[in-house]
Amino acid sequence: MRKFLSSAVAATLLCVASGAQAGVTFDAVKKKGFLQCGFAGIPGFSVLDSKGEWTGLDVDMCRAVAAAMFGDASKVKGNVLTAQAKFTALQSGEIDMLSRNTTQTLTRDTTLGLIGVGVNFYDAQGLIVKKAMNVKSVKELDGATICVQPGTTTELNLADYFRSRGLTFKPVLVENYDENFRLLESGRCDAYTNDKSNTAANMRTRLAKPDDWEILTENLSKEPLGPMVRQGDEQWFNVVRWSLNAMLEAEEYGITSKNVDEMLKSTNPNVQRILGVTPGMGKNLGLDDKWAYNIIKQVGNYGESYDRAMGKDSPLKLDRGLNKLWTQGGLMYGWPVR
């Protein structure tokens, strides 16, 4: 009996190991020669620029994976997806990776056949109101009419926050960003709720007089945003996860798109592993040892991406806040490439 059990366990482990190496999505992406990503079309995260090229923090996440896979960050095609369509698109195989400011939750990891890869932006949900209302706290919005996108954690968080405080509100469920802001400006809604970064980005592009509005300081929720992939392909999951970690590790060790070639000469063993000077870090991912070098050279480290998309080098000028490195008082913490 003991021998039989040992054999069964061994067979099970073999199956698990074989499944982990199957790489269904990995192989499909490699075969077609490009990465299909799902985007939101939100300033700072993913927008088309004047040249018709995708830019933004979530776009850079996809470009990083393409750089790791193909040595070419440009091998990305994007689909703009609504909040209600994004999971179906990933489940059906329409896209290979969802990089659409998506909140990582237990339910999404356990009921959709999908899984979160990591966090590339820490956010919080907030409410935007007109300054003339002189509202300083959410409790002053008891009974208010609030615009919110349906089928999102935003809608659920709003209900939870008001209910837990004995407050009431009248929801106006509208999917389209432009329509939400139109209703807000017209007075049809007293407030609009979404992730604070999303709201800050959109108010600059969708409101006629953005300075007439303010985002209340209170946070309605925690919003750890990050990419998602389908479950069942650990190889693909690992490529996406470690592409993000490589960008974070690169920033921590001072490796940038501008100095990466010079950093190849570094004697720091961590830098040597990240850049592939020490061989072996690509093999278990099914990639070339220069996978992280290609990400940093072509896309940059996380800080470079943030500054370009949302921070000091962008029109949004958003403070990094929680998205600073852990060494700078933030939550961004790259896992060791070793």
UniProtKB/TrEMBL annotation:
It comes from the Bacteria. Residues 1-22 form the signal peptide. The keyword Transferase does not apply. This is Amino-acid ABC transporter-binding protein YhdW. One of its GO terms (biological process) is amino acid transport. Belongs to the bacterial solute-binding protein 3 family. Keywords: Signal, Transport. InterPro entries: Bact_solute-bind_prot3, SBP_3_CS, Solute-binding_3/MltF_N. Residues 34-263 form the Solute-binding protein family 3/N-terminal domain. PROSITE patterns: SBP_BACTERIAL_3. PANTHER family: AMINO ACID ABC TRANSPORTER PERMEASE (PTHR30085), AMINO-ACID ABC TRANSPORTER-BINDING PROTEIN YHDW-RELATED (PTHR30085:SF7).
